[in-house]
Design a protein that fits this description.
rod-shaped, three-stranded antiparallel β-sheet
Length: 90
Amino acid sequence: MLVGVIRRDDGGQLEAEAETQAEVREALEAQVPAGHVLTDARVAMIKRSTRISAVGRYRHTEIAEVEADDMTALEAKVPEGWKLMSVRAL
């Protein structure tokens, strides 16, 4: 028996601009939809300015488990819009 951990595979990208790194992080966090988490952010100084710009990515936090006898059957049980994250044998 195999058990797979799956996660919703929806996410996106956000942009923000602010004076400090803390403010830009806060601006990104404020845009993250409910049920999602900010996973990373790339920051850069804006040319000819003291402001910082950032591009962040977010993903869904919902996870679940599916069970099957073999890998082919397990992969077939992963619903559309979900991603298989890990597999363990029981």
